[in-house]
Every structure is written in structure tokens, then in C-alpha cells.
């Protein structure tokens, strides 16, 4: 038991140490030792993490020459205390030889600009405590070793001058020497660099890991072996370029860096030196390429000969490669141009049937194209390339030039011919056929490889000061495919316009039914096409005919319509009868369609209430009821054709609501294309009035309500009361159609909304409603109708009125419809019951507030009773050095 009591504090201290190592402040420096070269700049980073307090931390740097844990450290520099530096380092810190460079809030670098052998030792980075609890480490130590400079870099070349003059394609080699006698195990990194401007770029390097690394611009040349780096005896590093290019002109230097492997197995560069080797000047190979002829004109079927010459200042061994190109445009690129023939550096010529290429002498190449055609017209140019041999037996391209293109025009053997256009059929009236023939005459030089096509055009007659506009009717491609224009596309599909070729030299245009829109000038264009070697066709020539005018004398259509009332006077219930007589002029074989319209009147019998289409009869004598919707009088109207130009209209069992003005609307039709009818002209007859002379009853309608202001959810009753003046009528001889409407506005400025209706047979119709309120309609007496609105809502607010249509039974037992009667509106106002609206929400709110308050009190009591502890924390110390462990 006694041993366990003695081990308990030790175990607790071990657990606290383990906890401190996993949590709390962490200060880090690089793993040592750091090997650095004398007189170079040294940078030692230090950072802190997992700390408390301000985000920006302070750092103190100290130095000791003795590598022992109990060695004395000298204060060097601090980020926050200007008096921290000891007298030994004051001059170097003030002179900026030793500085601190902050990278972030928790990271700094100690920079020693010119390290000395006396700077070898231990460097300690310390962060003052800003934590509430002391945990983790507050300093870190790294060892720095300073070695002497043993790196030597120099020029090693056979030439005494630093400027090398080379010709393009020449090989050259550059050498530099690099060695080290460092006391540490170091590796060298040798890089050859080139500058042709402001910045140096890497050519090829031998890294400190023994790997070759080409620059981005020299990767392909390194892979091909054009650029090499060789490590030779006596510490010589040679750069070899097998083929000098114009882009190789510039300055060359050798850059050597010394590397050492650190404690963490990573490579660190400890110093670097460079030496300028040479300035290389590359003279490019001069090459001129030209064609002996400039613009050339050749007749179709003849031969074309061109010669390509080149000149160069290059001496020694070289070979030339020549290519001939053809392009249809002078601005075409090499990728778009067509290669005709080529002769490589071994004088091997590519194969072609109609084109030949011969090597006349060392610098001349002759191109011959036999049996040229018009498709050979274009731009010809040649390209010469010079090649020189390399040391490994391969060939290198040193120069390449392209000549100025020469223009070649192949003149075609144009056929000669004339074009004659004749109108074989001309219309005398509209809808007559029109036929035009376009013929080729006096044709010469039209061998078997020539083909003719036609294009038809229409020209609208214009005044002399207007621009003439031609419209394409149809055209033929070289393969005789017909392409119809927009003007005649639909009519050609319907067979109204026919394009044909009856003979080899004749083309025909036929309009089956000529319309007014076809009046104008017509002409044709004959195109000649020539077959090419690849069996394609190229247009040679266009010849247009003289225009032919298609016109005929026209007169304006005239149409007269007269309506006659057969019975001068009749009463309600009798048959109304009227005839419509039609006469026309300047219309070819017309047919007529008739429409009967009526203009109804309001009660004042003076203001029209709109036109109603009753019944119609088309040009094929087909009858159609238009807006006649009276189901009880489905067969109450009849329209029939009495003669070719006379029509009769009857209306049986007329009613007082039929009063109004009746007219005949007649349309004259003339025969159109394809058996169709074309509308020619419209006519309107004089009006025939139906006016019943009667002293019948006069109906009035009013709306009453005992209560027009209600609260939401209450009931509203609206009574529609009908009164009669004049003749006394038995209730059995009267019937009413009643409809209710609402206008949700005080100013009556909105469209009325239908609510419900009750017809004279007792059938109720209601409109669909969106809200929760409902309506009902009932008859409470023979002349009184009541509308109920149940559970009123805000949407039921507004003016309400009823519309009544009386029906009266005559002495003959026929029900007659009277004029509609509209009541004056009555305003219904819907209010909100404030007490009932807020009673339940207030009760619910008070209850919820009480429950939430009680829960809050309960949670606060439990938290103070069981969950809270008093904790004493240290006062944070900013910018204060750590106390020793004995004081803690």
C-alpha cells in the first residue's frame, strides 16, 4: 500500500505530461543540424500553433555557441521588445545584417545576411505565454553548422573570345568547370542557361540527384538528341548543340548550386554560383524562291508550264526539297492549299497523271499541267526547303521559303447562243391560263460537255421613278434539279404553276389559273454549264431574254344587293318574310353567298345593341345557322335560294324580342384555280325593320333588402321585385327568367360577376365560387324572387342587381319573349367582428407565454443547481516571459 501511495504522484505527473504533449502550445523550428556556407544568407523559420490569446504572436531569438542543454544563450532579436538584443549583436541588428521577417501572425523567419564561422551554434526560438493554462512547449532549438566555401565554377573553352559567330545548321559545344572541396557531403546541380532578351531560360540541367532535366523550350530537342549535356573528366560539364538555329543566338552561362541532405532527408540548397560562358551569333541561311512568270492566261485545253527557282548563300553539302501548291484564294493558308506535286531531297517526284515535275538544274524545277480546264484557274506558288546532314547521319532543315503566288486564268471556250421568250397563251380574264416558252436559238460551240438550264423571273410593273424588283419563280441546278422560289412554291405544289422542258432547247412555264397578282413582266435566263475533269459542272455564261408582259383589261367588280319586305305589316306570332336580290358586273360566272344579320334594340328602341349573325347560305347552297341559339325555335328561321340571284328569308312565330333591323350580306365568288372559289367582292343590302305596334304591358324591376350591412359569416337576403304597368295580365300568362349579378366595386367600374339564375321552368343555375360563402335563389311569389348569400365573406362586398326577361302568353297561346329589364344596384357591405376575430388568438398567446415562462424558470433553476461550477482562471499575461517551472 505504501509503494502505491508513492507511485501515485509520479503517475499523475506522467499523465499530465502526456496531456500537455497532446494539447497546448507547439513551437516548431526546422530539424537540425542546418549546414550553411560561410558568407551566405541564412533563413531559419519558426512558427507557433494551438495557442490562446491574440492571433498575432511574438517571438524571441537567442544564440549559444555550446551545444549543451545547460549552455548560456545570448539574446539576439525580438519581435516586440526593442531592448531585447544583447550588446554583442546590437551592431549587426542595427545594421540590418540580422533581421526578423514576419510571414504571418504565428510565423517569423530569422535572417542572417552574411553568416560567419562564429555564428555556428544553437539557435532558440521562444514565444511569450498568452495562454490561460501552461500547456505544450514554448521554445524550440535548432543547430546551425557553418562550413567554408569550397565551390569553384569557371569557363573551360578552347576559344579565347567570348563571342562565337556561327552559321545556321552548324554544331557548337560549350564547357564549364565545377568542383567543391566542402567538408560536408554535398552534391552539385549544374544548369546551362540561355538569354535572348531580359530573362534567363533553362536549356538542360544535371541535377544534384544525378538526373537530366531539360527546359520547357528545349524538351523536344533534348529527346531528339540535338541538345546534350555531358559530364567529362576534370570536373568539366559540356553542352553540345548539333544544329544551330536562328533562335539559338544569345548569351550562355553555366549556373552551379551546392546541395546537402538535411536531418529530415530532404535536399537543401546551401549556395549557388554562375559564370558567363559565351555570346553566340547565328547567321540564318539566306534563301530566295520565285516563279519566272507572273500573271498567266491559258485557253481551256492547252498546257500550263511554270518554273520555280531558288537562290541561297549556303555553301557546302545541302539538298533541296520543292513543293508546288494551288489555291483558289490568294489569302489561303498552307493548310488550306492543295499540294500538286513535290520533289524530295533525293529528287523523288510524287505521282500524277496530268501534272509533271522535272528537275531542270540544281536550283530550278519545272511544272507542267496538261489539258487545263476552268477549274484550274487560281493561284500557284512553290515552296523550297534546304536540308543539311548532321553528324549522326540524319538531315536537318535549315531554311524554308515560299514564293509569291502567280495568278493563272484559264479562259473557257464560251458557247454563243440567243434566248427568245414567247407567250403562247395569254389570259383575257382572270383565272384564264398563261403559258410562256423560253427557247435557245443560234447556239454555237455547244459540244457534248455543255449543258443548259433555265431560271424564271417575275417583275412587278413599276413607275419609271421606282426601283424594279425581280422575284425568282424557279431555277434549275446543273443536274437539272428544279428549285422553286418562295413566290410560287405553294402554287407549284398545288399544281397551279407547272415548269417543264418539252424539248432539248425549250423550257416552258404554265400558270393554270392566272390571278390579279400574276399581272406583270416575265423573263427567263438560260445558263450554260461546262463539265470538269472530276465530272462536276461549272457555270460559264448567263443569257437573259427580253421580258414579256402579261396584262389584260380589267374593270372594277360591282355588286348591288336589294332587300324587300314582302308583308308591310304583321303582329307578334306571325311569319316575317324578306327577299334579297343581287346584281353584279365585271365578274366572270359569279356565285353568291348570303348572310342574314339583325341589329337588336334596347327598350328605348333607338340605340343598337350589336349585330347578330342569324343564318347563312354559302356559294354551294349549304345552309348554316350562325348565332341562332333559341332551342324552342330551332327551325324558326329559313334561308333559301329562289333564283341564281334571288334569296328568301323567313322567320316563323316572331316575338317582340325579334324587333330590329335585318340586312342581307352578300359575297360574290368567281371560279379559282383547282376547282376552288375565289372571293371577288362584298355587298350589303338596305335594312328591313321589324317593329311591333302593340300596347302590351310594361315591366319594372327593383331590388330590396331589410339589411345591407352585415358581419362576416352572416346571411344576406336580397329580393328582386317585379311590377307591371299598363295591361293587366293573369299570373298564369306570365313567366320570368331571373339572373343575379354582382359588381365588386362601389363606383360600378368593374365587370359584373354572374351569381345565379332561375329560368321560367324553375331550373336554378349557380356559378362556381372560390370562397366558403354560398348562394341560393328561390321564388317566393309569382313576381318576387329572393337571393340568399350564406356565410358572407369579403368577396361578397359590392353592388348587386337582378336581370329579368319576361315571357307573356298571347291570346293564341304562344309565349312571347319581352325585352330584358335590369334593376338598379344595391350595395352590400361586409364588416369584420373584431372581438370574435381576436378572442381565440389572444387566449392561445397568453397560454403559450405562461408555459414558456414556467419552462424557462425550471431550466434556470436546474442549471444553477447542478451544472455550474466556480472556476478560477489565471489572468492572461501578454508579452511576458515564461516563469520557471520551480515558480509554477
Automatic annotation (TrEMBL):
SMART domains noted in UniProt: IG, IGc2, IGv
Sequence ranges assigned to domain Ig-like in this UniProt record: 9-126, 128-271, 284-385, 415-536, 697-822
Residues annotated as transmembrane: 840-861
Cell compartments where the protein resides: Membrane
PROSITE patterns: IG_LIKE (PS50835), PROKAR_LIPOPROTEIN (PS51257)
Signal sequence residues: 1-24
Xref: InterPro entries: Ig-like_dom, Ig-like_dom_sf, Ig-like_fold, Ig_sub, Ig_sub2, Ig_V-set, IgSF_V-set/TM_domain
Keywords: Disulfide bond, Immunoglobulin domain, Membrane, Repeat, Signal, Transmembrane, Transmembrane helix
GO CC terms: membrane
Cited Pfam families: V-set
Main location: membrane
Topology of this chain in the membrane: Single-pass membrane protein
Keyword Disulfide bond listed: yes
The protein's name: Prostaglandin F2 receptor inhibitor
Native species: Podarcis muralis (Wall lizard)
Lineage start: Eukaryota, Metazoa, Chordata, Craniata, Vertebrata
Gene that encodes the chain: PTGFRN
